[in-house]
Amino acid sequence: MIKKCSLVLPKQLQEVILAHLFPGDGDEHALVILAGVADYEGHRRLLGREVIVAHDHVDSVPGRYGYKMMKAEFIQPLIRRCRKERLAYISVHNHGGSGSVAFSLDDFNSHERGYPALLDLTDGMPVGAAVYAQGAIAGDIWMPDGTRFPLIETRILGGNVERIYDSPRAAEAANAPFHGRQLLMFGPTGQARLANARVGVVGAGGVGSLLVEYLSRLGVGNLVVIDDDRISLSNLSRVVGASRWDARYPFSLDRMPKIIRDFAKRHSTKKVDISKRVAKQANANCSVECIDGDFADVRNAQRFLGCDFIFLAADSMRARLLFNALVQQYYIPGIQIGTKIKAGKETSSLEDAFSVERWVVPSCNCLWCSGMISPHLLAVEAKTAEERRDQDYETQAPNPSVITMNAVGASLAVNDFMMSYLGLHDETAAVSPRRIKHLSRRVIVESYPPDPECSECSGSVPSRLGMGDTMSLPTLL
After folding, report:
1. CA–CA gap between residue 275 and residue 281 (Å, rounded)
2. Comparing C-alpha atoms, which of 358, 345, 214 is closest to residue 278?
3. Model pLDDT for residues 343-392, shown as the tens digit of each residue
4. For residue 223, how many other CB atoms are within 10 A of its CB?
5. Is residue 46 within 8 Å of residue 6, measured between CB atoms?
6. Number of helices and strands in the chain (H, E)
7. Which of 36, 138, 142, 436 is the most buried (most CB within 10 A)?
8. How many CB atoms lie within 10 A of CB 298?
9. What is the mean pLDDT of residues 44-58?
C-alpha cells in the first residue's frame, strides 16, 4: 500500500525544466514530465526520465476555466506513451514567488475534471501535477485506485543532493555528543540527515570494511552491507576489525594437517559479521542489515532499492553491471571504488599502482557506455569454476592489495558522499571520476562523455534510465 510519494530528477533534467518555466518574462509556462515508478516499503518514487515542453501559443493556450491549459492534441500522444511504456504522467506549470508554492483552486478543479479519465487511459499508471516556484515544488499525484498524495519531497541528483519542498521545513536536529566536532562543521541538521540516511555497501573486504568504519563513525544511521565471503589469514592486514581468531588462526597452523586448515577456512567469521561489529563499536545507534550472499541474486539486489546512496567495493564485472543498473534505473547515486596494483617482473618492483573513485549518477559517468564493464569478462564470470579452469581463465588469481591504498579511495568516496548528501559542494563541483596514481603522486580527473545510444543511461532511446520497477535488473537469478 502506497503511503507517500516523492519525485526524483537528474540535475540536467531539472535545468531543462527551470529554463523553460522561468525564462525571465514572469509569465506561466508548462511542460510534462514522463517518469518511471519505483516502490519500496510504501514509498512511491517517481523517477523523471524525460521532459516534453509545451510551446506557448501552440501546445499551451489560454484556458477555458483557468489562465492557461495544454491542448488535448499535445496531451493525448503522451498519455498513449505512458500507457505503452508504463510511465507516470506529470503535468507541470509555474507560479510566481519563491520559497513556497501551492496549487490554485482552478488548478485543483482542473485535476478533478481531467485526471480520472487520464487514469483510465494510462491503464494503471499514476498521473498528476507539479507546480514550481523559485526554490519550491508542490505536487498532486493520483494513484490508479483514486487515492491522491502530495509530493513529500523533490530530490535533485547532481554534485549535491538537493531537496526541494512546497514550503520551508522545520529543521530536524541531532546532537549526539560523540559527534561534537562534526557538528561544528555541518550542524545538528546535517547530523540528523546522516542519521536518517540509508547507505548500501557492496563488498565487505579491504575497501568495504573501511567504508563501513567511516560511514558509521560519521553517524550514518542505516547501513546495508553484502558479501558472501569469510575472512582468511591473508585478509587480516587490510580488513578493518578482523582478528586472528576471526580467521580461526589463534596460533600458527602452517604445520597443522590440511583437515584442520580446511576446518578453519570453513568456520572463519563472515565478513559481513565483522562489518556489523565494526559499525556497532563505532556507533551503537547504527542499524546494520547484513546480507551473506551474492549481490547478483535478485532477492539480495532488491534489498538495496530503499538506499539513498550505494558504494561499490566489489570489482567483479557482474557487480559493476548491477550497481550501474541500480543507479540508472532507480536513481540511487553511488560511487565505485577500487585499487589496482601491477607488480613488475623484478622482486619488489611496481609497474603501476593507483586508486580510483568513480562517481556514478543518473545519465552521468555510466559504467557501461564509458567502457568500464567488459562483456568478455562478464561472459567469463558466468562460467562455472570448472569451466574457467578447463578454459585456462585465471580469474581466481589473487590481486595485490594494501590497506593504505584502499584507504585513499575509500576516504575520498565517503567524503564526497558526505559533502554531496549534505549539500556542501560548491556550484562548480563536478561529479568526475578521479584516479590517484601512487607512484607519481598525480591525481587524474577522468571524463566519460555519455553515449546518446547507451542502453543503460540514455534518455533518448529505449534504455534502463529511470524505468524503476518496469524493467528487470540484470541479476543472475
Report:
1. 10
2. 214
3. 877 766 788 999 999 999 998 999 999 999 999 888 888 776 665 555 55
4. 25
5. yes
6. 12, 19
7. 36
8. 14
9. 97
